[in-house]
């Protein structure tokens, strides 16, 4: 057959596309269970990290069952439990797009070894390039932050991506969500060095301003929905 | 049948690996693949993992295109190359997500960016379409390594001078510049972690290389 003719070219392109599509579809399908499992384990590690429990991919499952297990539930805006939803499988990416009243608000209760109860709230928002997310844990006064951990899809390494480091996350510990009058004040991320002594501010990252501000907006947006629950 | 078979690692074949490391380096001489060299050289670890991933793609895309070279219709050869490269990159991405989840999180968008790396298509056009599979594989190794080498050198200086740390795969961030230096008044150069400095560092490497190798200077 004429290698440069139209028929050959069309045939070649069609066969190539079908073969490649078949290979990739097969690969994606066969690797999917492993990828989903990895994602679930990574999520459990993140949740545990927000209460300062270090885990590895190997023991995350076990530790999650030990400290949290079934103590996870979904709330509505009024702080009442919503039946029929599982906290771990709630897709926050979809929830944050809904109106405040319709959203599902998942929460995890964690019993530490010393008997203390911590509340873990998942948060999700926008950074500079894509989504950012995290977990904020609160002491049993439902006001003081015990720990926070953040993740991102594609923030700039060395700048916005620094929100995943201890340097950024550690200062959240001890901050408060409500002011002295019991009003919801959230936690703002401000320019480096301007947060000293303020219970509602933490230092941002120089050069990563949009991501830093994104974290602040995310906390305000996601945590405000828990106000009724936290005040009880 | 040809009377004599060329040995697998003949001098000519070895040259395919060594020239892209130096005199025909894809980044410093051919100035290809600059975009990712600017983007992923803030830290050493992603630079290393990306270098390995790019090498995988250059080797296998060169091999596949070389095997198919006599069947590819000339008019759609660029499309065929693109399909092969894109498929390989998706395979890398999927496999990393299944078996090296942590690494895939760190690389995030950069794996997808391999598709746009001009070195890969450049080598397919310039070499794999006209050569046998084995030399094409060596050419892929050479160019992947030449790219990775520059990436790692640039990342080394940027991370060291910009943050005082070096991050290595499996070891995490290691502090290189001792605290005493900071007490004496040494300060990290924050400019190093911004993209323009990657360009400047690559420029310095090109300058050093050209001043040492007079053949590279245009008359």
Automatic annotation (TrEMBL), chain A:
<keyword id="KW-0915">Sodium</keyword>
<keyword id="KW-0472">Membrane</keyword>
<keyword id="KW-0406">Ion transport</keyword>
<keyword id="KW-0812">Transmembrane</keyword>
<dbReference type="InterPro" id="IPR007329">
    <property type="entry name" value="FMN-bd"/>
</dbReference>
<keyword id="KW-1278">Translocase</keyword>
<comment type="similarity">
    <text>Belongs to the NqrC family.</text>
</comment>
<keyword id="KW-0288">FMN</keyword>
<dbReference type="Pfam" id="PF04205">
    <property type="entry name" value="FMN_bind"/>
</dbReference>
<comment type="subunit">
    <text>Composed of six subunits; NqrA, NqrB, NqrC, NqrD, NqrE and NqrF.</text>
</comment>
<feature type="modified residue" description="FMN phosphoryl threonine">
    <location>
        <position position="209"/>
    </location>
</feature>
<keyword id="KW-1003">Cell membrane</keyword>
<keyword id="KW-0285">Flavoprotein</keyword>
<keyword id="KW-1133">Transmembrane helix</keyword>
<comment type="function">
    <text>NQR complex catalyzes the reduction of ubiquinone-1 to ubiquinol by two successive reactions, coupled with the transport of Na(+) ions from the cytoplasm to the periplasm. NqrA to NqrE are probably involved in the second step, the conversion of ubisemiquinone to ubiquinol.</text>
</comment>
<keyword id="KW-0997">Cell inner membrane</keyword>
<feature type="domain" description="FMN-binding">
    <location>
        <begin position="127"/>
        <end position="226"/>
    </location>
</feature>
<protein>
    <recommendedName>
        <fullName>Na(+)-translocating NADH-quinone reductase subunit C</fullName>
        <ecNumber>7.2.1.1</ecNumber>
    </recommendedName>
</protein>
<keyword id="KW-0520">NAD</keyword>
<feature type="transmembrane region" description="Helical">
    <location>
        <begin position="6"/>
        <end position="28"/>
    </location>
</feature>
<keyword id="KW-0830">Ubiquinone</keyword>
<dbReference type="InterPro" id="IPR010204">
    <property type="entry name" value="NqrC"/>
</dbReference>
UniProtKB/TrEMBL annotation, chain B:
<feature type="transmembrane region" description="Helical">
    <location>
        <begin position="145"/>
        <end position="166"/>
    </location>
</feature>
<keyword id="KW-0997">Cell inner membrane</keyword>
<comment type="function">
    <text>NQR complex catalyzes the reduction of ubiquinone-1 to ubiquinol by two successive reactions, coupled with the transport of Na(+) ions from the cytoplasm to the periplasm. NqrA to NqrE are probably involved in the second step, the conversion of ubisemiquinone to ubiquinol.</text>
</comment>
<feature type="transmembrane region" description="Helical">
    <location>
        <begin position="186"/>
        <end position="208"/>
    </location>
</feature>
<feature type="transmembrane region" description="Helical">
    <location>
        <begin position="105"/>
        <end position="124"/>
    </location>
</feature>
<keyword id="KW-0915">Sodium</keyword>
<keyword id="KW-1133">Transmembrane helix</keyword>
<comment type="subunit">
    <text>Composed of six subunits; NqrA, NqrB, NqrC, NqrD, NqrE and NqrF.</text>
</comment>
<dbReference type="InterPro" id="IPR003667">
    <property type="entry name" value="NqrDE/RnfAE"/>
</dbReference>
<protein>
    <recommendedName>
        <fullName>Na(+)-translocating NADH-quinone reductase subunit D</fullName>
        <ecNumber>7.2.1.1</ecNumber>
    </recommendedName>
</protein>
<keyword id="KW-0406">Ion transport</keyword>
<keyword id="KW-0813">Transport</keyword>
<keyword id="KW-0520">NAD</keyword>
<keyword id="KW-0472">Membrane</keyword>
<feature type="transmembrane region" description="Helical">
    <location>
        <begin position="80"/>
        <end position="99"/>
    </location>
</feature>
<dbReference type="InterPro" id="IPR011292">
    <property type="entry name" value="NqrD"/>
</dbReference>
<keyword id="KW-1278">Translocase</keyword>
<comment type="similarity">
    <text>Belongs to the NqrDE/RnfAE family.</text>
</comment>
<keyword id="KW-1003">Cell membrane</keyword>
<feature type="transmembrane region" description="Helical">
    <location>
        <begin position="48"/>
        <end position="68"/>
    </location>
</feature>
<keyword id="KW-0830">Ubiquinone</keyword>
<keyword id="KW-0739">Sodium transport</keyword>
């Amino acid at each position: 057959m004429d290698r440069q003719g139209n028929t050959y070219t069309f045939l070649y392109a069609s066969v190539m596309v079908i073969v490649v599509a078949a290979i990739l579809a097969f690969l994606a399908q066969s690797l999917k269970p492993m990828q989903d499992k990895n994602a679930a384990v990574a999520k459990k590690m993140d949740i545990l990290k927000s209460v300062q429990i270090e885990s590895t991919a190997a023991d995350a499952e076990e530790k999650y069952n030990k400290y949290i297990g079934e103590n996870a539930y979904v709330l509505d805006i009024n702080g009442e439990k919503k039946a029929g939803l599982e906290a771990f499988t709630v897709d926050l990416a979809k929830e944050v797009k809904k109106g405040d009243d319709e959203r599902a608000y998942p929460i995890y209760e964690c019993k530490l070894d010393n008997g203390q109860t911590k509340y873990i709230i998942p948060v999700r928002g926008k950074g500079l390039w894509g989504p950012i997310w995290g977990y904020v844990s609160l002491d049993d006064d439902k006001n003081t932050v015990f720990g926070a951990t953040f993740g991102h899809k594609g923030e700039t390494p060395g700048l916005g991506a620094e929100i995943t480091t201890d340097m950024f996350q550690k200062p959240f510990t001890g901050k408060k969500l409500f002011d002295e009058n019991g009003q919801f004040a959230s936690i703002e991320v401000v320019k480096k060095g301007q947060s000293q002594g303020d219970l509602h501010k933490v230092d941002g990252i120089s050069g990563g301003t949009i991501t830093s501000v994104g974290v602040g907006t995310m906390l305000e947006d996601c945590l405000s929905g828990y106000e009724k629950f936290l005040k009880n | 049948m040809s009377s004599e078979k060329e040995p697998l690692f003949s001098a000519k074949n070895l040259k395919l690996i060594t020239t892209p490391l130096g005199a025909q380096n894809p980044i410093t001489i051919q100035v290809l693949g600059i975009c990712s060299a600017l983007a992923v050289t803030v830290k050493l670890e992603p630079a290393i993992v990306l270098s390995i991933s790019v090498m995988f793609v250059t080797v296998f895309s060169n091999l596949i295109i070389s095997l198919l070279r006599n069947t590819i219709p000339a008019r759609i050869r660029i499309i065929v190359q693109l399909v092969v490269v894109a498929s390989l990159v998706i395979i890398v991405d999927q496999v990393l997500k299944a078996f090296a989840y942590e690494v895939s999180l760190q690389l995030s968008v950069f794996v997808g960016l391999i598709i746009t790396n001009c070195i890969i298509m450049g080598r397919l056009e310039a070499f794999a379409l006209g050569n046998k599979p084995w030399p094409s594989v060596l050419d892929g190794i050479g160019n992947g390594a030449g790219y990775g080498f520059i990436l790692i050198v640039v990342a080394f200086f940027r991370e060291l001078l910009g943050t005082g740390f070096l991050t290595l795969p499996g070891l995490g961030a290691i502090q290189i510049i001792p605290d005493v230096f900071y007490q004496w008044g040494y300060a990290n150069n924050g400019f190093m972690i911004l993209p323009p400095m990657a360009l400047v560092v690559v420029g310095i490497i090109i300058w050093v290389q050209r001043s040492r190798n007079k053949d590279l200077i245009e008359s």
